[in-house]
Each structure stands twice: as C-alpha cells, then as structure tokens.
Amino acid sequence: MLLRRIICTVRKTPLRIKYRVYNNPLTWAMICGVGRNFFNGNLGRFAIPSFLAFTTIVYAQQPDKKVDDEIVEMADNLYDHHEVDKLYEFLSQYKDSKNDEIQWRLARAASDKSKKETDETKKKELTYEGLHHAEIAVKLNENNFAAHKKAIALNPQDATSIHSLGYWCFVFADMPWYQRKIASMLFATPPTSTYEEALKYFLDAENVDPNFYSMNLTMLGKTYMRIGNKKMALLYLSKAHEYPVKTEDDKDAHKEAGELLASLGVKS
Predict the structure, then answer these.
(1) Bigger pLDDT: 231 or 182?
(2) Which residues, 6 or more positions from 245, have their beta carbon under 8 angstroms from its beta carbon?
(3) Read out DSSP for 114-178?
(4) Signal peptide location in the record (predicted)?
(5) Within a 13 Å sphere around the CA of 111, how many CA atoms are in the beta-carbon half?
C-alpha cells in the first residue's frame, strides 16, 4: 500500500510527535473521526485504548531503523518532561530491541522508576532490570557512552551515568540476605557491591558536576549513614534538604533527607 502521511500535534505533556499512518480505513477513521477527540483528551466510543497502543500500531508498520529513531525521539521527549512511569511503560514494549540506544534508555527508565517505588521487592526487581538492560546495551555497543557500566570510562564527565552506577551499587550493598538468596537463583553470578563502592561513585558524580542532582546529595548522606560517618551524613543530607524543589525527584530527595535528618536528631 502507498504510504500516506499525516502529522498530528500532541500537546498532552507538552510533546510534539509525528505519526505516520498507513492507508487503512479503520486507522484513518480513528484519526480523522474519534481520533480527533482522542488528541483533545476527550475519548470517544471507538477511541484507541491508550496512547501507547496507538504508537505501537503505527510503529509496527515502519522500517526498523526509522522505527528505532522515532522510539528514541519519543523516549527522550518523555524523559525531558519527567514522565517516569510513561517512559518506562513505553520503552518496556521494546525490551527485546537489538538497538543499544533503546536498551540503555530502558535501563535508565527502570532505574528512575525504582527510585519512586515504595515496595522494596519491586524496587529491587526494577534495579535488576535496569542492570540487565545496561549490560545488554554494552554488549550491543561497547562504545555507547550512555550504557552505564562503560559510561565512566568512555565519558568521565557524565555525572548522571556515574550516579546511576552508584545507585545500583548501593541497592546491591543494601540487599538483605533473603533477597540475595533469591538473586542467586536468578543469576549465575549475582551482582554484589559495597557501600564504599557506591560512595565512590556518588562522590565522583559530585566532583564532575557539583550539586547537579538533589538525589545524589541524599544518597551521599544515606551512604555515609550506612558506614557510620554521621558528620558527613549530616553535611550532605542538609544540602539535599535545602536543595530547590523543582522536580518530583527533588521533592522525593527533600522528603527523604528531612526524614533521615530527623532520625539523626536534627529538628526541621
């Protein structure tokens, strides 16, 4: 069939995304008819079940390279607008992708989502998932600086990648014995780490870009608490608590830092 193109501007996040739709009567009906209601946020009787379902239908009919490029563009838009849950849900559809750019973004999305998760079991599962996809990205392309395990060597000025690796180290170091037992059943060689290793990465990230991320300050304070250095824990937790709150991560970092300071006897 001949490819017909339409461009729909989506302002829900506010993202601007281009869709290519094939000459399919049902698809055109959804776009030109109730699809118009969908984009206006007013779902009609035959509207597509979800935003992600629609993008999947469209992407499935495009050449692989072009599809990958558009997936990356979509993912970056969601990331730029701090849509953590939507980004993870979107990229999870492509978990078997052979594109390293998609894999490392999924690793980052899983890591970011784990930080929001309150259930400890789910938090660990997401952390393992992030590590898994980061390792896949490295295997697919060892020269991709954004694949976290190689990021530090290839791009030592990327504070975000250094922080992510530190966070994984902290999670593995903080894992109780029964979860280590479960991990040993899932992995031939379960990941292990120490608080000292996590601390090194958090400090490295801070040295590369001071005060770049409120959660890095909180994690520094938290890690110092784990190794019994109250003085340094108070220093970084105070910095995190005073950090300007602009994003959801800042909000979470502020809240956790305040709770940890209170546990150390500091009154807010």
Answers:
(1) 231
(2) 214, 251, 254
(3) HHH--SHHHHHHHHHHHHHHHHHHHHH-TT-TTSHHHHHHH-TT-HHHHHHHHHHHHHHHT--HH
(4) none
(5) 28
The residue assigned the tokens 């903080």 is 174
Q: Which residue has the higher pLDDT, 153 or 82?
A: 82
Q: How far apart are CA 67 and CA 73, in angstroms?
A: 10
Torsion sign, CA atoms 55, 58, 64, 66: negative
255 token code pair: 């809240």
Amino acid at 183: A
Residue 115: per-residue pLDDT:
83
Looking at every residue in the chain, the average pLDDT score rounds to: 74
Q: What would the two tokens of residue 68 be?
A: 């990958």
pLDDT tens readout for residues 49-87? 333 443 443 444 344 777 888 999 999 999 989 899 999
The answer to whether residues 243 and 254 touch, using CB atoms and an 8 Å cutoff, is: yes
* pLDDT tens by residue, 132-149: 888 788 778 765 656 655
| Residue for token pair 């940890």 | 260
* Nearest C-alpha neighbor of 190 from the set 260, 136, 127, 114: 127
